[in-house]
Write a sequence for this structure.
């Protein structure tokens, strides 16, 4: 089934957009103004709710979005100092993600738009991530290659404009963020593991262990990260029982794992720029908040004569600002959803039409 947005050609121009993100375990809300930029944003993380289960419990996520979304909307409207009557459109994440969680944002966003008499638009979560660097100054100009690295996706995309996306490569198994989270669990780190593992890796010795760089010794732009967690598990089993300083050994393993993921991503990004004939690379998605990845990618792409762009860390992880911005781009081009609109757990980004 392909995505066919309706066009609302007779509407007033869309300037101020409310964005709502509820695809997983963060409730993100923001107001974006096409003339003034980002007016306000707020994110509520459900980390404490899911931490004791070691991962996201979908039913608990949905229930908490029900509790948090409306108060957060009130908060960002107040902080933006604009009345609900001055919102010109509502953007909500419609997929991919957890269906129950998506339903909360979709139902609420669609209803608010109806009540306010403004159009609503369904935003693709990964398009939100992909466009987040455009919220920064300087914003990258099209065309560029995007590396999207989140908890659910690892994709290299050739981008020639909004809605012009060609997938160059993607993960055949675990996403980069998922690999971080699973390896963090092996190292007994609390959920959410990615940032915890990165923190531990800072004290690690990069020379003590060496993890493989999966799928870099053959042509192609796909990824496979699931072998790294097995490698981590074997390394932990072999090295920890005999370790003189177990805390340092765990840090050394974390560092070796991080180096392997970063190296693999850097190699594939350089290859993608070369194959697509582009100079600009953007990084987006939760893992792009990783400091080591940003440093290493900057240096490698600069050495190859290219430029790297990434948003501030709070716009790398899930947030409402990227949804408000992507929604604004589509709403001002006339896209709008009918009243009966359902979220989509799976949604290939290449199905998105240009505005
Ligand atoms: O984009 P995101 O917030 O949510 C999804 O769309 O999945 O990405 C979350 C992922 C998680 O796997 C998390 O562990 C990872 O991003 N992550 C990091 C860092 N910050 C978040 N991974 C490595 N280093 C970080 N600093
Ligand atoms: Zn995300």
């Amino acid at each position: 089934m392909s995505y066919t947005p309706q066009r609302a050609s007779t509407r007033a121009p869309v300037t101020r957009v409310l964005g709502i993100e509820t695809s997983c375990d963060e409730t993100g809300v923001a107001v974006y103004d096409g003339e003034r930029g980002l007016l306000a944003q707020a994110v509520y993380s459900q980390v404490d709710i899911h931490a004791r289960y070691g991962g996201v419990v979908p039913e608990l996520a949905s229930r908490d979005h029900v509790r948090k979304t409306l108060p957060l909307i009130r908060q960002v409207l107040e902080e933006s100092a604009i009345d609900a009557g001055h919102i010109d459109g509502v953007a909500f994440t419609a997929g991919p993600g957890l269906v129950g969680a998506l339903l909360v944002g979709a139902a609420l966003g669609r209803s608010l738009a109806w009540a306010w008499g403004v159009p609503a638009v369904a935003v693709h979560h990964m398009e939100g991530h992909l466009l987040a660097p455009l919220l920064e100054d300087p914003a990258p100009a099209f065309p560029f290659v995007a590396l999207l690295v989140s908890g659910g996706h690892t994709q290299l995309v050739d981008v020639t404009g909004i809605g012009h996306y060609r997938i160059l490569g993607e993960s055949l198994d675990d996403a980069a963020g998922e690999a971080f989270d699973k390896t963090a669990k092996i190292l007994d780190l609390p959920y959410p593991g990615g940032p915890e593992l990165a923190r531990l890796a800072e004290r690690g010795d990069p020379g003590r262990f060496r993890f493989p760089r999966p799928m870099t010794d053959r042509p192609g732009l796909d990824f496979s990260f699931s072998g790294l967690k097995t490698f981590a598990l074997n390394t932990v089993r072999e090295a920890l029982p005999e370790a003189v300083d177990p805390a340092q050994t765990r840090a050394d393993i974390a560092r070796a794992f991080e180096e392997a993921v970063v190296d693999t991503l850097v190699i594939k990004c350089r290859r993608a720029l070369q194959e697509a004939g582009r100079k600009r690379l953007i990084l987006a998605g939760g893992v792009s908040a990783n400091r080591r990845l940003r440093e290493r990618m900057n240096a490698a792409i600069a050495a190859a004569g290219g430029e790297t762009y990434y948003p501030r860390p709070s716009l790398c992880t899930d947030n409402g600002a990227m949804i408000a911005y992507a929604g604004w781009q589509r709403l001002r081009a006339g896209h709008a959803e009918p009243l009966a609109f359902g979220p989509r757990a799976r949604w290939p980004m290449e199905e998105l039409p240009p505005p």
